[in-house]
Amino acid sequence: MFDVDIKAWAEYVVEWAAKDPRGFLTTLFCAVLSWKLAKMIEARKRKQKKKQKRQEKIAKAK
Predict the structure, then answer these.
(1) What is the DSSP string of 7-54?
(2) Which of 15, 31, 56, 61 is the most exposed place for a label (fewest CB within 10 A)?
(3) 12 vs 14: CA distance, rounded Å
(4) What residues contact 17, with CB distance under 8 A and at least 6 apart?
(5) What is the model's pLDDT at position 1?
(6) Cα gap 23→34, rounded to integer Å
(7) Contacts of 13 (CB under 8 A, 6+ apart)
(8) pLDDT for 6 beyond 90
């Protein structure tokens, strides 16, 4: 049952790409950029959190 859903989805994507290549590529490009942006935001948050913890430890040591 699960394989049928994947097969139907894959057929839909191929059909969409054939009928509207520009729209397909635009959507794909936007999805990739959104994913990269999300990863960059997550990395920035982790870095800020690490920096904040370090600052708190320094302040506590003083």
Answers:
(1) HHHHHHHHHHHHH-HHHHHHHHHHHHHHHHHHHHHHHHHHHHHHHHHH
(2) 61
(3) 6
(4) 24
(5) 54
(6) 16
(7) 24
(8) no
